[in-house]
Structure formats: structure tokens, C-alpha cells
Amino acid sequence: MLNGLFKSQLILGLAQAGVAALAAIAVMLLARRRHIHLERETLVALVRGLAQITIVGSILVLMLRGPRWTSVFILAAMTVAAAATSARRAKRIPGAFRVSLYAIAAGAGSVIALMTFAGAIDTAITALVPVGSMLIANAMNTNGLALDRFRSDVHAHVGHVEAALALGAAPEETVAPYVQAAYQASLIPAIDNLRSLGIVWIPGLMAGMVLSGSPPLYAAVYQFVVIAMIFAASGLTCLISTTLIRERAFSPAEQLLLRPDAAPAR
Amino acid sequence: MHFTSMAASASILRTEHLTRAVDGRRIVDDISIEVPRGDVLAIVGPSGAGKSSFLRLLNRLDEPTGGTSYVDGRDYREIPPRVLRRRLGMVMQTPFLFPGTVAENIRFGPRQHGETLDDEAIALLLEQVALPGFATRNVANLSGGEAQRVAFARCLANSPEVLLLDEPTSALDDVAKREIEALVREIVEARRLTCLIVTHDSARPRAWRNA
User: For the residues B142-163, what does the mean pLDDT come to?
Assistant: First the structure.
């Protein structure tokens, strides 16, 4: 329907964005009827998302014409932005930004470097930046989920953690079940993506490759390569972030710092 | 908050101006006490007086913002926290048992420093807390009083020199309360333990003494 109404591709794109945003707002209003208030967060996220992707798209047009090494800076900037987003999700965790930055940089960064070195990612800026950004974005999501789950589990089990500490347990031993649960829960989307690839969803990258003339079979196999890389980057990021956050949850005197509030007088 | 002593001999625990302030409010305010070895000290005061916070400082679950504590004359900040916490065993108001069996809970403390308690040692500890034959029971199926006894046995498994009891009977009915008090008194006397008991009920120290 929209295709018939608009001839300019830019106007068509904006109209399509408007329809998609309306669908998101409708869901938000349905949630509101059940007293789930996400209005502000949803509206801000929609406006920000559209503005960011438009600005980045414009910058990419300019940068994609640049030399290959500029992709390193683009991916580094994306990593910092991803760490900031993750840290906002886990803002009650001490040092969340630094933990997220180290974890995403090491997790996604090492997989991007390894795969580029192995030849699984082309060094052309037009390939490295989009594929790299997918790895960073998924690492960010996994990291946010892991930190949030770890925080909520520890908050819900402060008594058990402190009972274990009071018995002379090492801090890492007291939170081991919660680290494990956070790691497993945060990787569920990445595992499900791998499981359902081609059956439940056909990612856009594959469609794009087919449209740009790649053989469909190669496009399909490459899609698996990307999803497997996403799994590796997400898993490594989460492993690093849960290890780092576990250390920051305790003081040097092995006291639990990650508490819902300061210990009240009892 | 006041302190009621019940016996005496050479000092094992001493606090000097022990203080903890949170957000500018002093929840433990300048406490200086000396606890002789083998003494049973009751810390009595209303809710919110900082009694439990004081015990948490002694076990170093929280850090003092002023003053310090000495264990056998040594500043407790010089003692590794895990060693200190084994020497000053703490039983909390809520048992906070770990999922699994009673035996797994009792083995937890010794396992932290590489020691494995055998079945005989577990049975002995369970007899001391009047729960014979409970080793293989799942902690999810215990009553409040039974769970608190398991928490007590779990603490004793570390062979502490000092027991810090944070209102261990406050959530129990009168019968269970009396049983646990009698049990604790018996064990404290048999093992010659030093004991600090927190309670908001001013009648409890007498009840402990007469248990």
C-alpha cells in the first residue's frame, strides 16, 4: 500500500518507519491497560533509535568511501556506545560501564579480529563494519541480560550469600549459582537463534546477499557463519562480564557490596 | 542498647570505639566492650538500636567507619576475613539454608578450607542439636525450629571459638524457642564457647540463663 503512495524512497522509508513505530506504540498502550508503564522508555527509545540509525547511516555513507583502517575506529566507537547502553541497564552495579566495555571489547573484539584474520569476515569496510556491528550489538544484549540477571539474583539472595560468607566461604563460591544462572539465561536468545536459523527466521543479511547476486547456498552458509560468530562473541563477552562483575560485587574485605540498599540498622 | 554479662575469664574479644555510620547516620555508635573467654554476653535493645549491625561488624560482614575490634589481642583487620569468620561463627535470625540436604549444609563450612566431614561427624553434630537421623533430609522440608537447629549445627561444624547469635529464636514459637535456648546453653557450656546473643526481648537473657 505504501509503495503506491510514495515515489521517493526516503519518504517511503519514513512512512514505513512511522507504521512500524505505530505498531510499537499500540503494544505499549496495550501494556498500559495492564498497568505496565513503558510509555516514556518506549517513546524515547523509538525516537532515539530512528535518529541514531539515520545519523549513523549518513556518516557511514561518507565513511564507507574511506580507507579500510577507518573501520577499526567505527567499531571502537560502537563498542563504547554498546558499553554505555549495557551499563545503563545495569546502573546499580558498581563499575558497570567499565565491566561492559572490557567485556564487549574483549568478547566481540577478539571474535571479529580472529574471524577477519581467518578470512571469514572481509576486510572491506562495507563488510567489516556491518558484520562487526552485529557481533557488538548482540554482545551488548547478552551482557545487559547477564548483568541484570546477576544483580537481581544476588539481590534476591543477599541472606544466602552473607550466610555463606559468614561460614568462611570465598566470595566467588557464594555467588557461583547466580553467575551460572546469569550466564545460561543471557545466552538463551543466541542459542535459540542458532537453533531456529532458517526454520523460524531468515536474517536480513542473507536476503541482502541474495539480492546483491551471491549464490543462495553460499548466502545461507554465510548466514550460519555470522550467527555462530554472534554466539561466540556473546558467550565470550558474557563469560568476561560475569567474571568481572563477580569481583566487583565484593569489597577487598570480602563484604557484599551488591545490595538492594545500604544495610539498615537492625 | 545494653550488655548483660553472664560469666568470666581472660579476654578473647575486645572492641574499641566500634562505629558504623550509613548515610551520615550512626547505626553502631562508639561501642567499647571486652568479652572474656567463655563468657556469654546478651546484647539487649529495641528494634533498630543497631544490635545486629554490631554483630555484623564483629563478623566483618560490614566494615566499621570508626574504631576496631581485637580477637585475642590482634586487630581483626589483620586477620584474613575467611579465617576471622570461621573463628567467630554467626547464626542469623533467618537460617538461610542452602538448597540440598542437611548434611550438605553442615559440610559447607569445613569444605571451604578443604576439610570433608565424614558421616560420623555429621551424625554427632546432628545429635548435639537434637536432630538425629536428619542428615539426608532435604532442607526444603524442615520446620522453622529444625531449620534453625541445622543452621546452628552448620555453624558449629566450623568449630568456632566465639558464637554470634543474632536473635536466633525470634521467628520461632515459644516451645521451639525454649528448646533451642536450652540446646544452645548446653552446647556453649560443653564446648566452653564464648557467646554473644542479640535480643530485643529483655526477658530473654534471664530465659537463656535459666534454660
Answer: 93
pLDDT of B203 reads 66
Identify residues of B whose CB sits under 8 angstroms from chain A CBs. 22-23, 25, 27-28, 47-53, 56, 59-63, 77, 81-83, 85-86, 89-90, 92, 94-96, 98, 108-109, 112-113, 151, 154-155, 158, 166
User: Which tops the pLDDT comparison, B207 or A138?
Assistant: A138
For residue B98, the chain A residue with the least C-alpha distance is: A160
Q: How far is CA B193 from CA B75, B87, B123, B186, in A?
A: 21, 11, 21, 10
CB atoms within 10 A of CB B123: 16
Residue of A167, A173, A254, A255 to mutate when probing chain B, most B C-beta within 10 A: A167
Residue type, A222: Y
Q: How far apart are CA B14 and CA B154, in angstroms?
A: 25
**Alpha-carbon dihedral B190, B194, B200, B201, rounded to 10 degrees:** 40
ipTM metric: 0.90
The stretch B177-187 carries a mean pLDDT of 82
Q: Which residues of B touch A154 (CB under 8 A)?
A: none
Query: Residue B174: how many CB atoms within 10 A of its CB?
Result: 8
Residue A167's alpha-carbon distances to B57, B106, B108, B163, B209, in angstroms, are: 15, 10, 8, 12, 27
Q: Are B157 and B82 in contact (CB under 8 A)?
A: no
Question: Nearest CA of chain A to the CA of B105: how many Å?
Answer: 10
- Cβ of A265 within 8 Å of Cβ of B53? The answer is yes
Cell of A6: 510514495
